[in-house]
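Notes from the 1:1 (GR / supervisor)

We went over the backlog. Supervisor wanted to see one worked example end to end before approving the batch request, so GR pasted a single chain during the call. The sequence is below; no edits were made to it. Supervisor asked that the structure be written out right there so they could see what the output format looks like.
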Amino acid sequence: MGDFEIKPEFAVKDETALRALFPDTHELAVKKVLGALDPHACDFIGRSPFLCLGTQDLDGRADVSPRGDHAGFVRILDRNTLAIPDRPGNNRLDSLSNIVTNPSVGLLFIIPGYDDTLRVNGRATIVNDPELLESMSVNGRAPKIAIVVKVRETFLHCAKAFRRSHLWDPEHHQNRSDMPSLVKMILDQTTGAPDDEDEMRKLDEGLEEDYRKSLY
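Structure output shown during the call:
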C-alpha cells in the first residue's frame, strides 16, 4: 500500500469553504450550548461511569484518553466546576502533561445503554488538594491528583454516531479472541512476543493479575 497524498484542490482550508458544503446549522443546535451545568447535565454526569478526555500540547499535538470508574465518579463541585480523579495507570501522563502546558480540554460523557452523550469543554488544572482527593477515595485509596475543570460550555449530543455504530447492540459485538491479546500486540510492536504459547499465556495472566491489584 502506497502513501496516501491529499490532492490540494480538494483540501478544505477555511471555515467559509467548510460551511459552504453544509446546510445552515439548526437553530436548536446553536441554542442548546450552555455556559454552565444545568440539572440535566448534572444528572447525566452523575450516571456516567466513563468519559473521554481530549487534550493538546502547546504544539497542537492532540491526545484522547479514556477515564472510567463507578457511575458518578466525576465530582460536580459547583455549576461551573468538575473534578475528575486520576486513578493508577501506566504513568505516561500524556493528558496531564498536556494540561500543564495547555489547559483547554474537551470531555465526552458516556452512559452504557444511552445513545446520546454529553459534551463539556473548559479549562483544566491539576490539583493535589488532600481534602478533595480524600473525598474521591475508593477502597481506602485516594488518587494522587485530580483534574479540576472550569466549564466553559456544555451540551447534549444526539444519538446518530451510536446508532450508526450499533455500539450497545449485542448482535454487533465482536469476539475479543478474533485479535491477539493486548500484551501480545504491544510486544509485537516493541520487543517481540514469545513464540511459546505457555509463556505468552503467563504474560496475559500477569496483566490480569496487575488489573486486579492496581485498579485503585
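Supervisor's comment: The helical segments are 15-19, 27-31, 39-47, 94-101, 130-134, 160-165, 182-189, 197-214.
Batch request approved.
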